[in-house]
Amino acid sequence: MDQENTQNPNNPQKKMIVGWFSFTCSEDSTILFTELLNDHLDEWKKVVEFRYLKALKSKNSMEGLDVAFVEGAISSDKQAEEVKKIRDNAKYVVAIGACACTGMPSASRNAFVSDQINERICMYMKNFNYSDKVKKLDEVIKVDDMVNGCPMNIQTFLETLEKYLKLFNII
Ligand code: SF4
């Protein structure tokens, strides 16, 4: 799907500009999303420009997004900075999957007590500059919508996508 989705001058159809981002998670919602493309790509590419979708494209930009879908919890200062940049570039942000919506299960380590934090865990935390606490998305940025589920609930995702396509007067 490595195609430039710039608007075709012969096709004045307006498109919703979308980004799909993953942070600390197992990326199962990304896998589900790519599975959905098997059935919906032809329909979606008429109305959606996938401007940032690293799982499927090599050229990506987060400039001027209408909707950013963000999967995963935020587990480092670097990730917090990145997601704030996404927020600054998107009119709407939708949290995707339980890790983004609630923090869990990615935030399980927040419940560790100090004698459970062994040398190996300390080494990982230090090497990857992880924060002390893993955060759900709305602890770091404003979130406009949530698609809960582990992985995301497909029906809710489809309804949310449709909601924004209508909001932008595209369908
Ligand atoms: S919500 Fe579940 S499926 Fe999604 S990233 Fe987290 S652990 Fe994986």
Question: Please, could you describe this protein's structure?
Answer:
35% of the residues lie in helices and 23% in strands. It has 171 residues and is of the alpha/beta class. The protein has one domain: NADH:ubiquinone oxidoreductase-like, 20kDa subunit (Rossmann fold, 3-Layer(aba) Sandwich). The two termini are 23 Å apart. The protein has helices spanning 28-44, 77-89, 97-102, 119-127, 154-167, and strands at 16-22, 48-53, 65-71, 74-76, 90-96, 130-135, 145-147. The structure holds iron/sulfur cluster. Iron/sulfur cluster (SF4) binds at residues 25-26, 28-29, 71-72, 97-99, 105-106, 150-151. Iron/sulfur cluster is lined by residues 25-26, 28-29, 71-72, 97-99, 105-106, 150-151.
Return the CATH class. Answer: Alpha Beta
Ligands bound to this protein structure: iron/sulfur cluster
Instruction: Tally the helices.
Output: 5
Number of domains: 1
* Architecture (CATH level 2) name: 3-Layer(aba) Sandwich
Intertermini distance: 23 Å
Strands ordered across the widest β-sheet = 2-1-3-5-7
- Count all strands and give the number: 7
Provide the residue-averaged pLDDT. Answer: 91
Helix content, binned percent: 25-40%
Instruction: Assess the beta-strand content as a share of residues.
Output: 15-25%
Largest sheet geometry: 5 strands, parallel
Radius of gyration: 17 Å
Order of helices and strands: EHEEEHEHHEEH
Task: Pick out the low-confidence regions.
Answer: 2-8
